[in-house]
Amino acid sequence: MKPDFEKCGGLVPVVVQDVASLEVLMLAYMNEEAWEQTLATGEAHFYSRSRKKLWHKGGTSGHVQKVRSIRLDCDADTVLLLVEQIGGAACHEGYRTCFFRSIDEGEWKICAPIIFDPKEVYK
């Protein structure tokens, strides 16, 4: 079984969680090629909607995601990856998770640690 890419217009959403803590690290999208690369390499690959191309998570930063489990939802139109986040940061802005902001008493605050300076990593 695999995701129903046709049903989703070629791209399926992918929720990525840390395998140990179950913290949600990010949401991305896969096309069929990204799916196949993920299965073949054991590391997360996605499709960038903004760049319109395949990308290997951590290919530039070294913060790769080692896939430990893959799950499909009941409709086969959403993927859940449980990963070991190498290097500690999932977010391209340098944070542990892409969900690094929370609202607290009407104000947005940073709620996750920054792991690296993106200006240094993505020169």
From TrEMBL:
Q: What is this protein called?
A: Phosphoribosyl-AMP cyclohydrolase
The protein's predominant localisation is cytoplasm
User: Which species?
Assistant: Desulfonatronum thiosulfatophilum
Q: Which Pfam families match?
A: PRA-CH
Q: Which NCBIfam families match?
A: PRK00051.1
Report the GO molecular function annotations: magnesium ion binding; phosphoribosyl-AMP cyclohydrolase activity; phosphoribosyl-ATP diphosphatase activity; zinc ion binding
The record's GO CC annotations read: cytoplasm
| Example of a GO biological process term | L-histidine biosynthetic process
InterPro entries on file: PRA-CH (IPR026660), PRib_AMP_CycHydrolase_dom (IPR002496), PRib_AMP_CycHydrolase_sf (IPR038019)
User: Per its database record, what is this protein's job?
Assistant: Catalyzes the hydrolysis of the adenine ring of phosphoribosyl-AMP.
EC no. given is: 3.5.4.19
Q: Does the keyword Transmembrane helix apply?
A: no
Family assignment from sequence similarity: Belongs to the PRA-CH family. In the N-terminal section; belongs to the PRA-CH family.
